[in-house]
Amino acid sequence: MSFESLGLRAELLRAVADKGYREPTPIQIQAIPPILEGRDIMGGAQTGTGKTAGFTLPLLQRLMASGDPENGRRVIRTLVLTPTRELAAQVGESVESYGKYLPLQSTVIFGGVKINPQIQRLRKGVDILVATPGRLLDHVGQKTVDLSQVDILVLDEADRMLDMGFIRDIRKVLALLPKQKQTLLFSATFSDEIKRLADDLLNAPALIEVARRNTAAESVTQVVHPVDKSRKRELLAYLVGSNDWQQVLVFTRTKHGANRLCKQLHTDGITAAAIHGNKSQGARTRALADFKAGQVRVLVATDIAARGLDIDQLPHVVNFELPNVAEDYVHRIGRTGRAGNEGEAMSLVCVDELMLLKDIERLVKRDIPKDVVEGFEPDPSIKAEPLHKGRGGQQRPAGKRTASRRNNPRANYKGRSNNQSRSGNRARHG
Fold first, then answer.
1. CATH number at residue 77
2. pLDDT of residue 159
3. Which letter does DSSP use for residue 219 in this model?
4. Which of 38, 127, 302, 425 could form a disulfide with 276 if both were Cys (CB 3.0 to 4.6 A apart)?
5. Do residue 102 and residue 230 come from a single domain?
6. Among 109, 118, 105, 115, which Cα is nearest to 74's?
7. Which letter does DSSP use for residue 382 in this model?
8. Residue 54 is assigned to a structural domain of this protein
9. What is the C-alpha R_g of the chain?
10. How far apart are CA 125 and CA 118, in angstroms?
11. Residue 122 — φ and ψ, nearest 5°?
């Protein structure tokens, strides 16, 4: 199937061709026609499936079909809500690139940057507003946005917004919108809370789901490298150097851990930058731009970046530490293997993390291959220690196992030896 067969107008087809896309992805095939018809959507899609274009292209077409603004004054007709600044920026870029041949205006607003330039941009008038909930409500409080004429509402990564504690903010925003509108809700998972939100919001929605809940991308090769905690940084540097990786995204559990790892990698002669919630928006934007431009080989991130980063053809993702919440593993490794490209996801797992690994394998319904890198064999005498509190809010002792595992804490930890180097609290983010 071609983009032409989906009924998109010539300006949009030209913009799609400029980006080098020839065939729509499954979610685009399923989502674009019902959105063009004006139907509500409840969409479930894995990251990297082309979801953003799946709603951006048809909403641009619908805005053009509804005519020019009255008296030449632009009003906000489409509102896109996202959980993080990075995702807001990514969606904003998609709106601009796909709409570059259309006479529509858009802007992105999020926290962490000065509000006055945003106010000035809003005063000039925009058709499409992409926003994080917190900063949007800041503008509402200052009466610098009018949401009374919104025709299309998009809730992107709704599960992430709920997970981050934005449900009250979302409901405040919903109260400011017209009752009659088209609503597009996208979520990686369909929890009971998401279903309740959908029931309140959506009118006879078209259900679109292109991947099973919480499944890892099939185009991503996954492997676990067992290693002692004290040697993880050394192993990471070895993998980057011996394989000559030029672009690798590395996940840590904490902000301090990300900063510490960056300094250590610099000591090893590997350029690295960190991106997390304590960084200013300017610093985060610069780090991501340097990474995309190849000026930085390693981008070290916390889970704030797990769903908000869009990096074309990212070849490698490394879990320096496993996430405390198993679902976050799927979102992390989904940064690679996007849009049909191959990707590689490695997890450096110490004995403390064996229960986290077991949770992940249970979630993805498969055993992830274990591969011991020669020279980095784990010390069998080291005992598991409790992990710090994670996003789930509960301290989980790594040693809470069945009797057989208590006697042998390294059960399921052994892998084949590798004789060759591997190639392959609510934080208001708005």
1. 3.40.50.300
2. 85
3. T
4. 302
5. no
6. 105
7. P
8. yes
9. 23
10. 11
11. -65, -35
Task: Determine the structural domain holding residue 143 and report its residue range.
Answer: 4-209
Report yes or no: 176 and 133 within 8 Å, Cβ to Cβ.
Answer: no
Number of domains in the chain: 2
Structure tokens at 222: 């996954």
Q: What's the pTM value of the predicted model, to 2 decimals? A: 0.60
Per-residue model confidence as pLDDT tens digits over 386-401: 876 444 444 444 433 3
Q: Which residues contact 180 (CB under 8 A, 6 or more apart)?
A: none
* Residue range 19-39: mean pLDDT, rounded: 91
Look at residues 209, 237, 253 and tell me which one is the last residue of a structural domain. 209
Residue 333 has pLDDT above 90, yes or no: no
Would you say residue 136 has pLDDT above 50?
yes
* Beta strand ranges found along 92-132 (DSSP E): 106-109, 128-131
Instruction: Name the E strands within 170-319.
Output: 182-187, 206-209, 220-226, 248-251, 272-275, 298-301, 316-319
Mean pLDDT of 314-337: 85
Cα 321 from Cα 346, distance rounded (Å): 10
DSSP-assigned letter for residue 175: T
| Coil, helix or strand at residue 31 | helix
Which residue type does 119 have? I
**Residues 270 and 408 occupy one common structural domain:** yes
Are 252 and 188 within one domain?
no
The span from the CA of 362 to the CA of 30, in Å, is 30
